[in-house]
Amino acid sequence: MQLVHSELPSHRTDATSSIMTYATSSNMTNKIDHPQLCQWLKSIAVDRDKQAFTEVFSFFAPKIKRIAQSKINSEALAAEVVQDTMSNVWRKAHLFDDSKGAATTWVYTIMRNVTFDLLRKMKANKEDNLSDDIWPLAESLNTEEEVFSDHIQSRNLQGIIDTLPENQQQVVKGFYFMEMSQEQLAVHLDLPLGTIKSRLRLALGKLKLKLGDHHD
Amino acid sequence: MIKHHPKLELLQSFVDGDLPASLAAGIAIHADMCAFCQQKIGHLTEQVAEASFEQDLSPKSAVIDISPEISAMSFDEIIDQITASNDVEPAAVVHEERLITFKGMEYTLPNTLRNMELGKTAQIGKLSRARLNLGEGEIHTNLLHIGPGGSIPEHTHKGFELTLLLAGTFADEQGEYVAGDFIMLDKRHQHQPATEHGCLCYTVANDALHFTQGINKLLNPIGAFIY
Prior knowledge:
Oligomer: heterodimer
Strand content of chain A: under 5%
Distance between the termini of chain A: 46 Å
Helix content of chain B: 25-40%
Structural class of chain A: mainly alpha
C-alpha cells in the first residue's frame, strides 16, 4: 500500500529487484482514471447509461468481491456485497458530487456500509442497517438544492408537478418543497404511511416520464 | 473547546468499518461536532479507498479471483438485473428530529442515533439511563443523564469505557469536559465525574464499572446500572 503512494522514479533500470518491478508495473497499469470514473457516474445519473454502468461495474466489482471475501470469508456473501454495492451505485449515482471527493471514495463508502450492515446482521442478528446513519452518503439538507437544480430542470418542474393528480401533488410538494418526512406527511394528511409512500412512488414515476420527454 | 479526541488507530478502524456499531456511532457523533477529526476521517477514507481500488488483479491474487463470475451469475447477468430497475433514491432525505427527555430536560438526539432501538429509562437518584439495544453482547451502550449536582462515585473500569459528552458539562480530576469530548478510559484510569448543571452522555462499556472506595463498594449496583 505504501509503495503505491510513494514516488517511484518513472524510468527504472534492469537492476531493479523483482519486487520493485512488480510495484512499478502495478502502479502504472492501475493508475486510477478519476475523471473517467466521474464521467461514467454522471452518465449513469443523468442518462441512466447502461454502458457507463457496465464500465463502472467492470472496474469495481472484482475488487469489491475480493475485499468482501477477505472480510466476510464467504463467497456467497461477498457476491451479495458486490450486488448490493453496485445496485446502490445505480440508484444513487445522482447523489455523487465530484466536488466533494473522488468516485473511489464514494464507492468505497457504499461498499463499506453494505459490508458493515451485512456483518452486523450476521453477528448481532440485527437488521437495523445503521451504516447510513453512521457514515451518511450525502449530507442531504445542504446539498438538496444543488442536487435538485443539477438533475431536474426546476424551471419546468413546477408546471409538471401541477399536472399530477391533486393527491400526488400534495405528497410531492410536502416531501420535496416543505422538507417533510414521509412519516410527517402521513400525520399531516391523516393517511397511512403506505399510502404516502405509494403516492410518492407513483408521482415520481410520472415525473420521470415527463421530464424524460423533455430530455429527448 | 473540545479537547479529547479518538486516537488515530480508532479513526482508522472506524474508516475501515471494523468497529462495533456502538463505537463507530460514538466516533461519528464526535466527528459531527469536531471539524478536526472530520477532516482526518475524510483523508483516511480517501486513502483507504484509493488503496482498495488501486490494487489490480495482480498475478498473486488472480489465483483467488479472476473469473468474471459471481456465484452462479455472470457479471453480465448482474448488470442486466441491476439496470433493469428504474428506482432512484430520492435526493432529499429529510429526517425528523428525535427527542428524549430526562427529568424534564429535553434533548435532541444526534442523527447517528435516530434509528437505534431505545430501551426504557431507569433511574437511581440523579442518574438516569436509557439503554441502546445494539445486540453487541458484553458491549453495552447507554444514554446516561446526570442531573444537576450529580456525580458518579469514584470507579475504575475492568474493560474500556467510552464517555462521549452530548450536552452540558462535567468535570473530574483531569479537568472540565464539554459537549463533543470523546473520553476513552481503560482499567488504568480512575475517575469521578460530577456535573454542576447536568449533562447527557453517550456511553459504551464492555464490563461493569468497578467501584474503588469504601462505602462505594456497597453501591456496586450502580456499577451494573451504569454499565
